[in-house]
Amino acid sequence: MRSTRHASAGVSPGTPHVCIRCRIQTQRRAGHTSAPAPAASNAASTKKSGTESIRPAYRSKPSGLPLQIREISVPTNLIQKGDTHDPRPLTDQAYFNELSHESDGHGSRIDCHAAKLSRREESPAKLRRAVEPELPAQKDLRRQRLQREHHEMGRSELDELLQKHVELGQTAGGGGDVHGKVAVGTDKRGESQKAGGMPSHRAKRMDKARRVDDEATRPAVAYNTRFSPATSPPKKSRTLQSPEHRQPRGTLIWPPPPSAAQYSQSRGYHSSRNVFQQVAAAQNSTSQPFTPELMPDPAKWQSPHGIRAQLRQWQEEYGHEQDLKRQDVDDGDDFDALGEASNNLTRLPSAKMAFTNTSAEQEEEEREAMAHFMQAPIDEPTSAELNTRFLNVGDLVEIEFMKSEREPVIAVFVRNTGTLAQFYTMQGRWVHLPEKRIQYSIPGWFRKEDVEPLLQYLPKPEEVESDFDRLMEDAYLRDLNVPRWVASPLVSRMVRFYEETKEIYRRHAATLDNAHDLMAHSTNLRYGTLVSAATTLLKLPANEVPLTALYAVRQALSNAGFAFNIDRRSHRLTGYLQIRSKEQVRMVEQVRRWLREWQDDLATLASKTSKQQRERHRSSQGAWYVYNFLAKAKAIVQRSRLDRQPTPSNIGPSKVRLPITSKQQCVRSTMEEEFNDSDVELVRFIEAWSLSQMFAGVPRIEALPPLLLQATGLYEDFELVTQTGLLFLQELGTVMPYENRIRFDQHLLLPASQHSKPLQHLMTTLEDMSDKQNPFVDSMADLRHDWGELPVYCIDDAGAHEIDDGISIEDAGVGADGGKESWLHVHIANPTAFFDRNHALAKMARHMGESIYMPERTYMMLPRWATQKYFSLAPGRPCLTFSARVDAKGQIVDRKIRPGRVRNVFRLTPAEVKELIGVNDDSNFPETVLIVGGDSPEPKHRVSRVTNMDARHVEDLKLLRALSEQRSNIRAAAGGLFFDTHKPSVDVWTAHNRMGLDWDHPYRRGSRRVEGDPVIRVRTRGLQNWFSPFADAVGTTVREAMLVACEVAATWCADRAVPAIFRGSVQRAGKMDSEAFYRDILAPAAKESPKGEYPMHLGTRYLETFGSTEFRTKPFKHKVLGMPAYGKVTSPLRRYGDMIVHWQIEAALREEARIGRSLVNADPKPERSFLPFSTPVLKNLLIGLQPRETMILKAKRYADDFWIMMLLFRAHHFGEITLPFPQVWDEKTGRMRSVVRAYVHVPSQASLPSVACMIMELNVIASMTSGALANAGVGSEAKMGDVWECMIGEVDCFRRNVLLMPMRLLERVEE
Predict the structure, then answer these.
(1) Is 1256:1267 a contact under the CB 8 Å cutoff?
(2) Do 1207 and 863 form a contact (C-beta atoms < 8 A)?
(3) How many CB atoms lie within 10 A of CB 967?
(4) How far apart are the C-alpha atoms of 229 and 220, rounded to whole Å?
(5) Which helix (H) or strand (E) holds 564?
(6) CA–CA separation, 274 and 512 (whole Å)
(7) C-alpha 701: how far from its chain's center?
(8) Could you report the per-residue pLDDT of 1019-1063, keeping only the tens digit for each?
(9) The dihedral formed by the CA atoms of 130, 132, 133 and 139, expressed in degrees to the nearest 10
(10) Run of H or E residues at 637
(11) Per-residue model confidence (pLDDT) at position 1
(12) d(Cα 602, Cα 607) in Å, to the nearest integer?
């Protein structure tokens, strides 16, 4: 909270208000040098000045340090009635007469101007400009005028004008909120300002250079080549400009003017409205009730016919309506350069910039939707809507404005229109935006019947989806809003919720504004939920926290900015939040302070035109830190460019080539220590911005790192965005030139990411355990069945890190119908029998969620020493066996679960099994292999047991294959859907004896030069129809056996009323019924196909009609798989959810052994206290487990995509290899380009510059520029199912995307 720059001194009632600076100057001219006395604090002086001094009786002080009290002036009329505005214009004289009674952040500077006006020393128009921030249109005109005048000026005149502009911009931006005299406690470590006199030189400096508190709106001037205050100013200045606003060289560009919203909405740990909340908090803490009698009587000093009386009358009549809209009023443009709407409720927004995604976001979502299918495990196909908590009609939601920090808006969810969701706000406006943008909702706030009356007045879904731009144009010309009498019941209830929330915030403002200090750890990252935060801050039990209080706490955490963090991919589902450590917040604030001092120093230097003035100038310590860092960084980057060429998406490959041999790696690093402690902090600051995206949603911090990049002068041809920040770190050597940035995801929190110190300590504990001699005890030892010589077939890739499962087949005799029956045994590794849920291994498994396999590294859920030495399936190892007795048709007639121990284990690869059973299903799809960086090392020699297998073993494998085909038919008859995406295989090497990369960590102490690059190999069979009949006989055999085990586990638990984690399909309202889709669309299309298969673009749509996968504690139908019950149990070594089911089953088995009978009974509520997880605990675990699995699924897909893009990047842009595709000459670029075929899986949209597609030769996600479609001669729209011939344009490693330029249409499916 900012105090006013000049505090008015106590004066007599008839004396004009004069600021301290002006009074000091007057006294000096009269021969007085002493500073004026501070204002009197008694009631008489307060009444004379029209303000009230309010001191809270209590204020929380968590740090234990004494508090310093500062007073901020609040006009008494604001405390009584709230901020009011007269819609009629004031005359100039009346305008300044009114301002003379208030302090609005300009301090008594307004009073001085009013006094000058009364003496006619300044014109009213000039004074109005001096105290009012300019409107954006006025600022644009002034900036354009200065640009035109630049060409007509000399150097000296330009410097003078530059200084004038800096001062003028600071004066215009000096305004703040209207403050009152409120006692504000600050820690001694804070930066509170003294209330007494101020030296004149400091007052001048603060008045000149520190009027704007928000760095993002500060009119900073940065010279590219200035790294020392002693250097002479360069001949031109450059400022940060977005590409669309970038001007030609030689044109003077002033920084963009701040909008009014940035002044009124800017906040650090306090919102602008917290001023009044602090007032209310102080009132509630006084010993006696605060009443209007404590305030001076306005009638004694205000005219009954004055403007204040008229404003008060207007407020009483119309203020209740205006207050609802004031939070959204903005003098700025409808949207900023980042695409965030800043005034899109009081004025209808642009369809492209208001509530719809930006083009980049929509392109990314389209690619994710298709890539999610590609990466989804075969045993659980799912839709792109996985793990999304769907909104229902009547849910109360919060609409945020991430890029402008505007106050959120309360709205009600009306319906889905297709790709967008429709909402109705408490301001009486309808808006459309993607449902995933909603981060907070209250289910069932309104009944469906309450919302239905709005539907006939709202845009129809078909209108929104077909032509949203035209709809918005109509909304500008005609009133398309819901009549007030229809919407008033909803609006009034939303307003009441909003007002109750604000009242709770006011009562607890002192605590809520101090939330981070109360909840954060000094050095460690903490976790919490919104409910836990509310109970901590409000001192209420969780079941007694009202929804309004919960939302008030949410607003407080949002106001804290960087201090709290949420994962926007899943927060609405989980409510989880990260509480950043006080140390980390202090680091960010410290670097912000350095950068502020640096900006001030640049502005000061720009005003010094003579050499003597610049030599006498002394920079502050923070400014020197930045100057020195920039000088070192610039030198390091220039050295780096001697070996590696920078590009917008990634640094290029090294000019040095190092072949892989038995004695050397293909990468060599050299590090030099050149940075001091302050440099390290600046590097960490840029890391947080570009690598971990920690500043997303905090624009005032997010705007600072680009200034450093700009100041180096080395990135003039690059957009100053996060990917350029990553390029900067690569050129410094902080991260490796080929670093996969997904590793640093702040929510993925990999143990090696260095985000969490407790996690690193847990890793150390597990490493220490590896030295102990067999630290485990088998809790199922007495119940284990010895499987003896029964063959167990473990079929997996040769490079598998751990073996979870094996399959056996055993003769079960003849069934009741006379047919042959068999026992199908699925043996699963059993680590949970050796430690409980509170063990260190279990804690690491819960954090990880599952093992994360990336081409460069594997992040194990359980340490490798534990899996390889004790738990991975091998001869003599323990297991948990899921058995099903099946007939010749694949029907399950009996089931059981037994702990056991396997002896006769055969580890086989899929290729070996195919050879044994005599199948070759890959002949029609030859494999394409691409390699950059040299030859791939020879694989390690593996001892195979194929030579030990006889005819019996081959017959077992053939029987398993036959049963798997029968099981597939059963699932298909139950409505199951089958598909296979045939994902490319990616491998990476730097050494000959192992795959992957070394465990490199960020190097922040200086430069790191990396010579050479990894060897990358991609193997693919190209894009095949995902819904073709399965040709992979071995894959089908393994998959069906695992599904049998999952069904056995779910059914066994259901029979015994054992809660666990079960998965199934949930149909979403509004989606087309899957049976109707199949009957009306899919089946006719399959009949027309020569092979009788589903067209791929229709198959993906069909898959979406099945709904989404959901987790529950009781089994239910999985419609996509065609199974009555499904619970994953086959991968306890790499999936925490499977471990939970194993713990529950083991506890039930031990209980059955103890009581000597089965737990199967008809009791609807049996006693299950022996289980390690109760149903409520499981439900709580499911909240975070499902989003965690989705995050890991995407992380693995991103890693594969990154390395494929890195291979194409080095091949296409640097010519390391020639891609095996046709080549054509591109006249625009004057170079040869590869030609590929692109399959369009989503329709193009006119508002997007590209359409998502897939490169058919590689089976890789790409984007095709829609602007070039018209030039291809087929119109401007690509349709689903199209096949286009395209040139490869650019390969973007940062966004993991290939940009294609269409040449001609090859195929188009019929409608």
Answers:
(1) no
(2) no
(3) 25
(4) 16
(5) strand 564-565
(6) 10
(7) 16
(8) 999 998 888 776 788 988 999 999 999 999 999 999 999 999 999
(9) -70
(10) helix 621-640
(11) 39
(12) 9
- Per-residue CA distances from 211 to 260, 621, 1196 (Å): 15, 20, 48
User: For 869, which DSSP code?
Assistant: I
Per the structure block, which two tokens stand in for 583? 């140390």
Instruction: At 102, list the tokens.
Output: 């208030």
Residue 148 and residue 84: Cα distance in Å, rounded? 40
Whether the predicted pLDDT of 715 surpasses 90: yes
Q: What is the pLDDT of residue 977?
A: 82
**H or E, element range at 929:** strand 928-932
Instruction: Report whether 511 contacts 185 (CB < 8 A).
Output: no
Token readout for 885 is 């007795």
C-alpha count within 13 angstroms, C-beta hemisphere, residue 194: 7
pLDDT in tens, 807-853: 999 999 988 888 899 999 999 999 999 999 999 999 999 999 999 99
Q: Exposed, middle or buried: residue 793 (CB in 10 Å: 0-12, 13-18, 19+)?
A: buried
- The model carries a pTM of 0.73
Query: Comparing C-alpha atoms, which of 903, 904, 899, 871 is closest to residue 782?
Result: 899
C-alpha torsion 433→436→440→443, nearest 10:
90
Q: What is the dihedral of CA 1189, 1193, 1196, 1199, to 10 degrees?
A: -120
pLDDT at 1247: 59
- DSSP, collapsed to helix, strand or coil, labels residue 1019 as strand
* pLDDT at position 172 over 60: no
Helical (H) or strand (E) element with 973: helix 951-973
> What stretches of 173-330 show up as alpha helix (H) in DSSP?
200-209, 260-265, 274-284, 307-326
Can you tell me the distance from the alpha carbon of 969 to that of 72, in angstroms, rounded to the nearest whole number?
Answer: 77
How far apart CA 1305 and CA 1286 sit, in angstroms, is 9
- One-letter amino acid for residue 1087 of the chain: K
Q: CA distances (Å), 1183 to each of 375, 388, 509, 1179, in order?
A: 22, 11, 30, 7
Bridge partner list, 1263: 1252, 1299
pLDDT band at 139 (very low <50, low <70, confident <90, very high): low
Residue 1000, pLDDT score: 87
Confidence of residue 1120 (pLDDT cuts 50, 70, 90): confident
First and final C-alpha spacing in the chain: 61
What gap in Å lies between CA 202 and CA 208, rounded to an integer? 10
Task: Write the DSSP string, 751-813.
Answer: GGG-S-HHHHHHHHHHHHHTTSS-----TTGGGPEE-TT-EEEEE--TT-S---EEEEEEEEE
Average pLDDT, the chain: 75
Gap between the Cα atoms of 1008 and 1000, Å rounded: 12
- What's the rounded Cα separation, in Å, for the pair 204 and 19? 13
Q: Exposed (0-12), middle (13-18) or buried (19+): which is 92, by Cβ within 10 Å? A: middle
Q: Kindly write down the DSSP assignment for every residue of 428-466, as one continuous string.
A: S-EEEE-GGG---EETTSS-HHHHGGGGGGSPPHHHHHH
Alpha carbon separation from 474 to 196, 258, 420, 481, 647 (Å, rounded): 58, 31, 19, 11, 43
Give the Cα separation of 262 and 165 in Å (integer).
Answer: 19
The answer to whether 266 and 177 have CB atoms below 8 angstroms apart is no
Burial of 951 (0-12, 13-18, 19+ CB in 10 A): exposed
For 706-719, give one letter per residue: b (16+ CB within 10 A) or e.
bbbbbbbbbbeebe
User: Cα angle vertex 894, ends 891, 896, to 5°?
Assistant: 130
- Only one residue has tokens 């009152």, namely 180
Question: Which residue, chain included where needed, has tokens 């990553």?
Answer: 726
**Distant-in-sequence, close-in-space partners of 1096: CB < 8 Å, separation ≥ 6:** 1025, 1026, 1027, 1239, 1241, 1281
Cβ atoms within 10 Å of 1181's Cβ, excluding its own = 18
In 598-749 the beta strands, taken as DSSP E runs, fall at 668-673
